[in-house]
Write a structure and sequence with these properties.
- With 213 residues, the protein is an all-alpha fold.
- The chain folds into two domains: 122 residues, no CATH class; 89 residues.
- It is built from eleven helices and no strands.
- Helix 4 runs antiparallel to helix 5.
């Protein structure tokens, strides 16, 4: 169990490497002082443009994938729950690191990109339907936060459908869905009050349906 603890701490430390804060520091700014104040890809896109946001997303997805891959690669000890279970634990530790980064005063992003990175290694078959759900909600409503929460919640039925006997992965899906809902609580509150920022250009399906009426 000591080795698992070391792996989880390392995964958390890896997850704490925030793409937006790391790249922002190199360019001389703290993205948490711009836009929504969140150190995630959406705020990066809104305040710094798509090139900067792309770099942020690549780092945030990559660190999640790397944390899980290393957990699967490194040896286990007697009494370990197994390589895959350790990978699940380390994956969630990396996501927690992104949300509560030790290097940046525990103020990080909302975790979606890092969750995607972990799933790319844990169960890549989940990525396409998750992306489809996210795009459908975003293309209809224009709300990124809402799209992310619904995609996160859809992770539960999708996991049951695609890997019906993977109990550990289902627990992981529940934990990730709960965390994504929690980190997007502010978005949901603003949506309820009618003050949530909407990407009108992303509402391609809404405009398509409206044009056919």
């Amino acid at each position: 169990m000591l080795l698992l603890l070391i792996k989880a701490v390392f995964a958390y430390a890896l997850g704490s490497v925030s793409g937006s804060l790391l790249l922002g520091r190199r360019q001389g700014f703290d993205i948490r002082r711009s836009g929504s104040g969140n150190a995630g890809g959406t705020n990066a896109l809104r305040t710094r443009g798509w090139r900067f946001a792309l770099g942020v997303v690549v780092i945030d997805i990559g660190k999640g994938a790397l944390a899980v891959w290393l957990a699967l690669l490194l040896p286990t000890m007697t009494g370990s729950p197994g390589p895959y279970s350790e990978a699940l634990i380390c994956g969630f530790a990396a996501v927690l690191g992104h949300v509560f980064p030790v290097y940046y005063g525990f103020r990080g992003g909302k975790g979606a990109a890092t969750v995607v990175g972990t799933l790319a290694v844990l169960q890549p078959l989940l990525l396409a339907p998750l992306l489809l759900v996210w795009l459908l909600v975003l293309g209809t409503t224009g709300y990124v936060g809402l799209a992310t929460v619904i995609a996160g919640l859809s992770l539960l039925p999708l996991t049951v459908w695609i890997t019906p006997h993977a109990q550990g992965l289902l627990v992981y899906a529940v934990a990730c869905a709960a965390l994504l809902t929690l980190t997007h609580a502010g978005n949901l509150q603003r949506l309820y009050r009618g003050t949530e920022h909407r990407f009108e250009r992303a509402r391609v399906f809404a405009r398509l349906f409206a044009g056919r009426r």
